[in-house]
Design brief:
Blueprint (H helix, E strand, L loop, with lengths): L7 E10 L6 E11 L4 E5 L6 H8 L7 E6 L2 E2 L5 H11 E4 L11 H9 L5 H14 L15 H13 L5 E5 L7 H17 L3 E5 L11 E6 L2 E7 L14
Parallel strand pairs: 3-8, 3-9, 6-7, 7-8
Antiparallel strand pairs: 1-2, 1-4, 4-5, 9-10
Helix pairs in contact: 3-4, 3-5, 4-5, 5-6
The structure holds adenosine-5'-triphosphate (ATP) and magnesium ion.
The site of adenosine-5'-triphosphate has 11 residues, from β2 and α1.
Keywords: ATP-binding, Nucleotide-binding, Transport
GO molecular function, one term: transmembrane transporter activity
Organism: Rothia santali
């Protein structure tokens, strides 16, 4: 599914930290577009600005210069309160280290997130469905410590999807996993982009993921040095050129 208008339009965005001689320019003049239903992959060396860009799009930080439009909303112009609401209602995050609540089961972790946007009883059902969808229907009542790394990350994906986010932002989601398990997690994310209107964005060090991306964005020293659409993306964990 690819919508016509860009869903997220990052335009001339800069982000610097500090002042004077210690000033660090993390991003400079970055312009990219992300679309619903697309699987976008951001690559680049350590320190190139990948997480900074993801945090800006996710409303966890504000740009020093430039504009970030999400749908009709200029998020750089939102008040703190409005930005909190944006993060809570429209953005799902998946991080390297899962960040699950240890004393809640898989289902409870997901239901808690779902309950932000729907009544509690409905949230329990939605949590079960989502965990089923990420292949964890048989792990609903397990606590995080009773799950493998890949299973925990799939719970984190289900949790991020629970609020039906417009944007799913993933910062090295397979970074802590062995390659087989990491591939399963990335396949799940690609599948999400293919089957929903969510714009899925993955930051990765995995060079091979570029071939599977609908859009590949490469950063170098805070600038976009490559940005291309791939009309025949490989299916992760499957055959090439499908979709
Ligand atoms: N809050 C901050 N204060 C000061 N400098 C920062 C801050 N956040 C990021 N930086 C700097 O901005 C640059 C880009 O950092 P960023 O975390 O975006 O890189 P990255 O591409 O995600 O790297 P990695 O692959 O190691 O995660 C780095 O030089 C970093 O030190
Ligand atoms: Mg990073």
């Amino acid at each position: 599914m690819v919508t016509e208008a860009p869903f997220v339009a990052v335009d001339g965005v800069g982000r610097s930290f500090g002042e004077g001689p210690t000033r660090v320019v993390a991003l400079a003049e970055v312009s990219v577009e992300l679309r619903g239903g697309e699987f976008s992959v951001i690559v680049g060396a350590s320190g190139s600005g990948k997480s900074t860009l993801l945090n800006l799009v996710g409303g966890m930080d504000r740009p020093s210069t430039g504009s970030i439009r999400v749908g009709e909303t200029e998020i750089a112009a939102l008040t703190d309160r409005e930005l909190t609401r944006y993060r809570r209602e429209r953005v799902g995050f998946v991080f390297q280290f899962y960040n699950l609540i240890q004393n809640l089961t898989a289902r409870e972790n997901v239901a808690l997130a779902a309950s932000l946007v729907m009544p509690g009883r409905e949230a329990d059902d939605v949590a079960g469905d989502l965990l089923e969808r990420v292949g964890l229907g048989h792990r609903l009542d397990r606590f995080p410590r009773q799950l493998s790394g890949g299973e925990m990350q799939r719970v984190a994906i289900a949790r991020a999807l629970a609020k039906r986010p417009a944007l799913l932002l993933c910062d090295e989601p397979s970074g802590a996993l062995d390659s087989t398990t990491g591939t399963q997690v990335l396949a799940q994310l690609q599948e999400t982009a293919r089957t929903t209107d969510t714009a899925v964005v993955v930051v990765t060090h995995d060079r091979e993921l570029g071939a599977a991306a609908d859009r590949l964005i490469r950063l170098h020293d805070g600038r976009v040095v490559e940005n291309r659409r791939n009309d025949r993306p490989a299916t992760i964990g499957g055959k090439a050129g499908a979709g």
